[in-house]
Amino acid sequence: MVRGGAEAPGLRWRPQAFLLVAAAVVLFAVGIAARDPVPVLVAFPLLLAPLTAGISGPRAAPVVRVEGRTEGYGRSVRVTALVTPEAPIRPESLEVFFPVPPGIEETRPPRTDVVGAGLRVTLSWNAPDPTVSVVPRPDVTWRDPLGLVERSASLAMSDVFVERYPPELQRVGAVRLRRTLTLPGETRSRAVGEAGDFFGIRPAAPNDPPRRINWRATARAGVRLANEYALDRTGDLLILLDTRPTVLGAAVDGRLLAISRAAAFGLAEAFLREKSRVGIATYGEFLEAVPLSTGRTQRVRLRNLLLRTGVADIPGPAERCAVSLRRYYPSNTTTVVLSPLVGDEQVNLVAHVRRRGFPLVVLSPSYLPMLRARTDLPLEDEALVGRFARLRRREAVGRAWRDAPVVDWEDYWSLGGFVHFLRRPMARERGG
Amino acid sequence: MSETNRSLPWRNVIGPAYGLLATASATLALVSSLPLFLGLSLTIGAATLASLLRVALPRSVRGLALLPALVGLGAVAVYCPLGTFPELLGGLAGLALLLWCAEDPDRYPGSLGRGLAALFVPGAAFGIAWTSSLLLPAGLGTVGIAAALLAASATAAVLLLRAPGAFDRDPAVTS
Fold this sequence. Notes:
The complex is a heterodimer of chains A (432) and B (175).
Chain A lengths: L1 E2 L7 E3 L1 H20 L2 H20 L6 E9 L4 E10 L8 E4 L7 E11 L2 E9 L4 E4 L4 E5 L5 E4 L1 E5 L2 E4 L27 E2 L3 E7 L11 H7 L3 E6 L5 E7 L7 H24 L3 E7 L3 E7 L2 H12 L10 H11 L5 E5 L5 H12 L4 E6 L2 H7 L4 H23 L4 E4 L6 H8 L9
Parallel strand pairs in A: 3-11, 16-17, 16-19, 19-20, 20-21
Antiparallel strand pairs in A: 1-11, 2-10, 3-4, 4-7, 5-9, 6-7, 8-12, 9-10, 13-15, 14-15, 17-18
Helix pairs in contact in A: 1-2, 4-5, 6-7, 7-9
Chain B lengths: L15 H16 L4 H21 L9 H13 L5 H19 L8 H8 L1 H16 L4 H23 L13
Helix pairs in contact in B: 1-2, 1-4, 2-3, 3-4, 4-5, 4-6
C-alpha cells in the first residue's frame, strides 16, 4: 500500500531566524542611538539571511519518495530506508526522523548516508517481544543551508512492516488440519509441490530426487525432465484472539495482546504457506472476523486486522463470541484460541467456543514473566508473591484444560512445545 | 539526525566556521574600545560557548546555542569606533556568524560549502551597503537615511516572519 503525502504545513521559521532578526533590530536601534554604523553593518547580514532563506527554498512542500525494507532475524530488527527527493531538492538538505514503533527499542543511533540522489537511513532496533507492527511514517523536513527555515516534505511511501515471531512457527504449517468442505478437492490449490495430483513436466533441477524424474519423458526429449504435482489444500484454521481487558491493567494487557498478535500472524503465515484456509477473529466487546480464505491477499487482510486490533475498552460476554463465531466460520474448524486466561471470563470463553462445535487448542501467553519484572519487593516477599501468582495461574490453566488442551506460553520467543503438541495425532481429535 | 536528543561527538564542536567566527569577532574586539583581554575573552569565549552548547543541548532547544555568539558579537560591535575598517570587520563578523549557523554538527558533511553559497545575497547586500557608506558623507544625515532604510527592512522582516505563508506557492487549479 502506497500512502500519499498528507497535507503538509507551509514554511516554518526556526528559532535561529527569530534570534537573528531580534539581534539585528537591537543592533540597529543601538547603532542609530549611538550614531555608530558598525552595529548597523553587523546587523545587515543578520536581517537579510532569514528572508533570503525563505525566498530561496522550495515554494511548496517538496515531494520525497521513501522506500524501506526490514532485515534481521529474531529480536534484531534492521530497517533500511532510501529517501529520494524530487529534483531540484538535494538530499543533503533533508532531515529525516523515524519514530520508533511501540514495543520496539532503539539499540543504536540511526545512520544516514548520502547515496546518489537520495539518503539511505539505517535503523537498528530490538524487539524485546514478538511483534507485528508497521514502521511509522518518517518526518522528512527540508531545511535551508543556514538552518533558518524548514518545510515538511510530502511523502510517497509504501508500508514497511516488522514481523517477528518465534521461529518454530515456520514449521507448524505441516500439521494436518481438519477439512470443513464436503469434498477435499472442492477448492483446488494452484500451488505446485512434491505431492498431490499430477500437474505437469518441467526441466529437472540438480537437486531433484530420482523419484521425481520422469524417465520416459527424459528419454524422449533427451534432457532430464521432472514431474510436478498440484498440492492439495490441507485444511482450515481459525485463530481467535481474546482482546478483552483484564485486571492486569492496560500496559500488561497491551503487551500480552502484542505478543498474541505476533503469534497469530506467525501461525497464519505458516498455514497460508501450505495453502490452508486461515481466518482470524478478534473478540473485545464484539467479534471482528476475517473469514476463511487462502492466498497472499488473505495474508494482507489478516495482517491488517491484527494491526488495527487493540485492547477493547469494554469486555463482551463470552457467549456472544461463541454465537458470533458460527456466523463466520463452519463448526468443526480447527481453532487456536490466544487468550491470557486471567479471569473467569477468559476461561469461560474456551468452554463456550468448544460447545459451539469448534475443536480448539488454547495458546495462553503467560503474564507471570511481566509480573516478575515489575515487582519491587524484598526477596522473600517476592518469592511468596511469585508463588501465589503461579498457583493462581495454574488454577486458571487447569480450569481451561477441562474443555480444551492449553499450552502455557512463558518464553515468548519459543513455541517449540506448542508446535510439538499440534503435531501429535491425538491433539487434533480433542474436543471434536 | 533521526533522533530527538541524540548526543553529538565532541569533535564536531570545532570546525572551520567556528575558527572564522572567533577570528573575525576577535579582530573586531582588537579595534574596539574594550580592554584587549576583555574583548578577546568575550568574543572567543562566546563563540566557544555557543559551539559547546550546540553539541550539548537537547535537539529541541539546540537553536538557542546561537544566543551567546550573538551577545558576544553585539557587545563588541557596540564598542567599535567609527571608521571604514571597523565597519568592514563588523559586516564580515556578521557573515561569519551566519556561516557558523550553517556548520551545524547535526547536518551532513559539506554543510559549510552549502552555507557559503547561501551567504551570497546577504554578502552582496552588505557589500553594497558598505561601499555606499564610503560614498556618502559622514554625519547625522547618513545615519538618518540608514535608520529609515533599516527600520523599513526590519518592519518587513518582522511582518514576513509572522506570515511564513507569503513564501508558499499557490496550488494550481488543476492539481
